[in-house]
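dumping this here before i forget
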Amino acid sequence: MTFVLGLTGSIGMGKSTTAKMFAQEGIPVWDADATVRKLYEKGGSAAELIAGQYPAVMEDGHVSRARLRDLIAQDPAVLDRIQTLVHPLVAQDRAAFLDNATAGLVLLDIPLLFETGTDKDCDGIVVVTAPAAVQRQRVLDRGEMSEADFEMILSRQMPDAEKRARARWVIETLTLDGARQSVKDIIAEIEGDLADA
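structure:
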């Protein structure tokens, strides 16, 4: 039996760092963002679809995330149309990962886990969290987006409190050591349950 653990959290909460910690503990991780990046590359199946609808966001055959972000800022409805094109391809990739899973525990790293209804495919959910001021500072410190971009993304994500209320486990990401210990504790708990099953 494979236990499918879903990992999610709003932008800037430390989800990618936490997913790496699971990987470092030997847990196979499927990363939604990495899958989208692969699909956006030159020759990627999403790149071809998006080029047909939004040629202005293409750059040397791949989807320019910066151009796409600018277009979405001008017309937020573009995001919904892009997701309609990309989500089925992402779901296919995720299904292939799960079909090939041999480990007792696997992790799905999905920013929009609840928003897309993918939580239904998980046996348990982990939400990463940090105070709102820390979240904002982390995102703006990356230098990749403006405050307006951050607010737009945040407005499309389920509120942090609601995510935490729907999760079986919550990891506070204020310190790396604290987060790493939480990861180890969750793995030990799930592996203990699997051994007893």
